[in-house]
Amino acid sequence: MCGIVGLFLKTPRLEPQLGGLLSGMLGTMTDRGPDSAGFAVYGREAAGRKITLRGPDAPSLRRTIAALQAELGLVLDVQHRDTHAVLVVPEDRETEIRAWLAANGGADVVGSGQRMEIYKEVGLPASVAGRFDLAAMAGTHGIGHTRMATESAVTTNGAHPFSTGPDQCLVHNGSLSNHNALRRSLRREGLTFATDNDSEVAAGYLTWRMREGASLKGALEASLADLDGFFTFVVGTRDGFAVLRDPIACKPAIMAETEDYVAFGSEYRALVGLPDIDGARVFEPEPATVYAWERH
Amino acid sequence: MPLVDLRQTTLRELNRSLHALDPDTNETHWRVRHPDGRHAVAAGLSLPIAVEIEGHVGYYCAGMNAQAEIVIHGNAGVGVAENMMSGRVHVRGDASQSAGATAHGGLLVIDGNASARCGISMKGIDIVVKGSVGHMSAFMAQSGTLTVLGDAGEALGDSLYEARLYVRGSVKSLGADCIEKEMRGEHRAELSEKLAAAGLQGEVDPGEFRRYGSARRLYQFHVDNAGAY
């Protein structure tokens, strides 16, 4: 099961409403995934690097961030949202900050980039969206996932989106069968993985391809030959948004496009609340075909 | 004419009302507004009533239909008219995967495209798709007809039994044991009849279609395979 959603705005008109629209889409997909939920939002570009951190609970995350700033002599712009916080850090200090976090614990890095913020937690999608106040977030695009755990525990680590590169993230409906071998070869290429999750390997694969010079579209096209299994992916990058289904189209997908946006849902129900949906071109993405959009 | 707005009335109430109708009911024409992609809209109907659905529906719309005539003014999700027994289902937009799956009878007309596995395991239904169909259409189809005015995707008619497939456009590839067959007079007559039933009489030339069917090598016992048992 599981539900995935994505919304990419082609014009600025709806940017203030991005979070509100995405929140509605995510809530509708509760039927497909009531165990945990997560989402990524591409918001305003920061004057530095945005790092999204997740702590075990809000007070201890605050303590960790205070200690980090004190020990490294930093005064950071920090936006707390429940168990998550987004730090804006000088780009030349990111490695040092990550090393401090790795050594001291107390918070996991969920993702980083110039524009991307990622939030994920266990619980009903509507309550997860509510805890982080997704409805109030503005941005140009976002993706989300609702999980129905079938083969591993209900934990935040198993929640999507997965991010393995700056401003890159992926949500996945399906399962991959060659992820262990692929993870080993990607580790040899210098990628790091936080979990044993198959979807994180798909994210890592795309990060590797793009690092080697491929476009988002090219990376996804290459994945058709290298990933074995069932998948519908929705992927976000700093300025891009893409959708890919496996060659036998095992998992459901529906898209809607208007002059203002491109939207993806596991089911049409997720798209019903979008503006001008009655006038949208609604279509099912073809199997083994990459659909990609870029903002300019 | 009963008008049901699914933003006001629950889906369960709608389906219950449709199921509770008496055979001699005068409420023979229903309109359903705001389906909003809900699943199983107007599933399990068993009387010759008409239901018009104004918008996109989710999974299994008109599933198990018997006798009713159901028109969807929008797109249909997975499994529209699955296991239909009789009656008529008309999708004005596109249909998702497994349209008409396992259906025993009736007519399914899709004005747009149908995606993968259209007519999978069909058992007697007639399906007319005015656009194209996706991969693995008519997979293990047992009987009935699948008529496609556009193209067919990969592996058409894989492991086919006795269903007849008529395609006007290109076929990307044929599935195991599916072959092109000669279009004889009886087939042209059958195709004309199905096109007429779908309201296409005079609009489409049956002579432009090719016929595909089972080579009967896969499901028939062959003595050379005796050692395998």
Outline of this structure?
Chain A has seven helices and 16 strands.
Write a structural description.
The complex is a heterodimer of chains A (296) and B (229). Chain A is of the alpha+beta class and 296 residues long. Chain A folds into two domains: 3-45 and 125-294, Glutamine Phosphoribosylpyrophosphate, subunit 1, domain 1, CATH 3.60.20.10; 48-113, 2-Layer Sandwich (Alpha-Beta Plaits), CATH 3.30.70.2040. Chain A is 27% helix and 32% strand. Chain A is built from seven helices and 16 strands. Chain A has helices at 18-28, 58-72, 94-104, 125-131, 179-188, 198-211, 216-226; strands at 3-9, 36-42, 49-54, 77-81, 84-89, 108-113, 116-122, 141-147, 162-165, 168-176, 229-236, 240-245, 254-257, 261-265, 281-283, 291-294. In chain A, the strands form three sheets. In chain A, strands 7-2-8-1-14-13-15 form a seven-stranded antiparallel sheet, with helices on one face. In chain A, strands 9-10-11-12-16 form a five-stranded antiparallel sheet. In chain A, a hairpin with a 2-residue loop joins strand 9 and strand 10 (168-176). In chain A, helix 6 (198-211) crosses helix 7. The longest helix of chain A is centred in the first third of the chain and has 15 residues, at 58-72. Chain A is globular and about 55 Å long. The mean pLDDT of chain A is 95. Chain B is mainly β. Chain B has a single domain (3-214), classed as Glutamate synthase, alpha subunit, C-terminal domain (Pectate Lyase C-like, 3 Solenoid), CATH 2.160.20.60. Chain B is built from two helices and eleven strands. Chain B has helices spanning 11-19, 185-197, and strands spanning 3-5, 29-33, 50-54, 69-72, 88-91, 107-110, 123-129, 143-148, 164-167, 178-181, 210-214. Chain B is elongated and about 60 Å long. The model of chain B has no long low-confidence stretch (mean pLDDT 96). The A-B interface holds A 248-249, 252, 254, 267-272, 278, 282-284, 286-287 and B 36-38, 55-56, 58-59, 75, 77-78, 93-94, 96-97, 115-116, 134-136.
